[in-house]
Amino acid sequence: MATRRHTFVFSTASVVCVLAMCPCVASAQTNAQESVAQRVSDSVDDDRIPDPAIQTASEPAFKPSLGQVFSKTFDDFKRLPSLDSAVILSLGGAASMVGRPADARISHGFLGSPSKGFFNSGAYIGAAWVQMAGAFTTYSLGRATGSSKVTAVGADLISAQIMSQTLTQAIKFSAGRTRPDGTSYSFPSGHSATSFATAAVLQRHFGWKAGIPAYAVASYVAASRIETQRHYLSDVAFGAAIGIMSGRTVTLGHGNARFALSPAAAPGGAGVNFTWVGKK
Length: 280
Description:
61% helix; 11 helices; mainly alpha; single chain; globular; two-stranded antiparallel sheet
């Protein structure tokens, strides 16, 4: 029991349907699916060869240029104000407030922890330049191989990183909170934001087979920021919310929302809440 304060807790308690898509988005997707189904049906009835674009609807045919990626990112920022974003940030803020009274105790509890050294890689994995390099590499590979799917994933990763870092840095300079190690700009955690943004994009494109390990890595990065005295629990909780919100915003229209996910904070640790919300 004495080691509980050193543990980064994964909570499976249901909270709310944080990341369930807005009804209008679900409706738009349903209508789009019905439209494709109708086109297929019409082509069969007319004894025509189906449009190849219909047969490969799951593989985006559009491979955006870098200019179009940045243009899309600008449009993503305009879509940011939404009910989905408000719910995610509200829960992220609530988790941050719950964890704030225990910030100092949890941070000090990691000092002299036997886990010292285990979390060192988190500083690199969650670094903005590493995450952005990974996003551009994915995009470049997609363009080089002609894979529209990989290109789309890379484009969304780039957009998510730009959005999460822009929001994080703006709040950092506004809040001006001192880090546990005495340096500046603690709130919110940029490493947590970038890692959770990547996890959200991967989950939306590839489902939970990619989402679960991606969120596990993001949680490891968030824990590392507390262990290395770079952030408080409340910092990583709100940073995670920013990342999830950014990843979901740039992937609007991808994936299903059978599980909702939100950052969690508790006096004994931090983690991720999963909630079953059913099929769309």
